[in-house]
Amino acid sequence: MRKQIAAANWKMNLTYQQGEALLDAILKENIQLADHQHAVFAVPFPYLIMAQTKLSARKNYAAAAQNCSDQPAGAYTGEVSAEMLRSININYCVLGHSERREYFSEHNQSLAVKTERCLELGITPIFCCGESLSIREVDAQESFVEAQLKESLFHFSNDEISKIVIAYEPIWAIGTGKTATAEQAQEMHACIRRLLKGKYGQQVADSIPILYGGSVKAGNAKELFGSPDVDGGLVGGASLVAADFIKIIQALK
Ligand code: 13P
Q1: d(CA 10, ligand 1 centre) in Å
Q2: pLDDT per residue over 44-58, tens digit each?
C-alpha cells in the first residue's frame, strides 16, 4: 500500500510552550502507526528541533518545515535553506501552500527550484496545489492544477517525482469550514493521478501519496481518507487540538 499521511500544518499558531504541550498530548495517546502510515507535523521554524526530537523517537512520526528558500545559501536575511533543515534532520518540507502563493508571491517557477533544493538534500517536499473559488466556479480546476504540476514538477525524473508528496488543497475549503465532499476530493485526486500517469506511467503514479487539505476535521477525516486516491490529509485548524488530530491520525487507511 502506498504511504498514508496525516500531516498537521500549524501555520503561524501557538507559542513554543503550547506547541510542546500539544505534541506531548498527541504522543501520550501512543498511536502505533503501521509501516505505511505516517504522522507529520509542520511546525514553525523555531520549534523544529524540539518537535523533531520528540517525534523521531516514535516510529513514522516526523517534523516538517512549512517552507524553505529557493536559494542554497547567502545574503537572504530572514530565509531558511533546505541545507539548514537537513542539518537538523528534517525530512519533510511543505512547499507552495496557497497562503504562501497569495501573501508571499510564490509562483510555479520558484516552487520548481524549492522542490529541487529539497530533493537534492533528501527532504521530502509536500507540494501543495489547488484552485480558488473563482476557478472552481468556471469549472477550470483541472486545467489550473495541471498547470501548477507541469510548471513546478514535470521536469523531474521518474526517480525524483517518486520522492514527492502532493497535497491538493482547494483554496475555497481552507479555513472556511466548507470541506470538499469526498466525491469532489476523489475526483481531483484521480485527475492528479491521471496526469502523473500520463507523464510518468502507472507504477510511479500509483506510488505517489496525494493528501487532501481544506477543513479536514475529526468528524470528516474517515470519509475523506476512505476514497481510493486520497492518501491522508494536510490539516490546519483541527491539527491545533490534540483530541481532534488524534482522531485524524486514527482515520488513516
Ligand atoms: P484548514 O484545515 O484550517 O482548513 O487548513 C487547511 C490547510 O491549509 C492545511 O495546509
Answers
A1: 9
A2: 999 999 999 999 999
Region of residue 93 (left: phi > 0; alpha: psi -120 to 50; beta: else):
beta
| Residue 237 beta carbon below 6 angstroms from any ligand 1 atom | yes
**Residue 216 near ligand 1, beta carbon < 6 Å:** yes
Q: Is residue 149 a contact partner of residue 192, using CB atoms and an 8 Å limit?
A: yes
Whether 177 shows a pLDDT value over 90: the answer reads no
Does the CB atom of residue 9 touch ligand 1 within 6 A? yes
Long-range contacts of 115-118 (CB under 8 A, 24+ apart): 115/152, 115/153, 115/156, 115/164, 117/68, 117/69, 117/70, 117/72, 117/81, 117/82, 118/68, 118/82, 118/93
Nearest CA to ligand 1 atom 5: 236
pTM of the model: 0.97
Residue 179 has a pLDDT of 83
Q: What kind and span of H or E run contains 165?
A: strand 165-168
Q: State CA 195 to chain mean position distance.
A: 19
Distance from Cα 130 to the centre of ligand 1, integer Å: 12
77 C-alpha to ligand 1 centroid (Å): 28
Position 66 pLDDT exceeds 90: yes
Which domains are present in the chain? 4-250 (3.20.20.70)
SS3 136: helix
Q: What is the pLDDT of residue 37?
A: 98
Q: Which atom of ligand 1 is nearest to the CA of 239?
A: 2
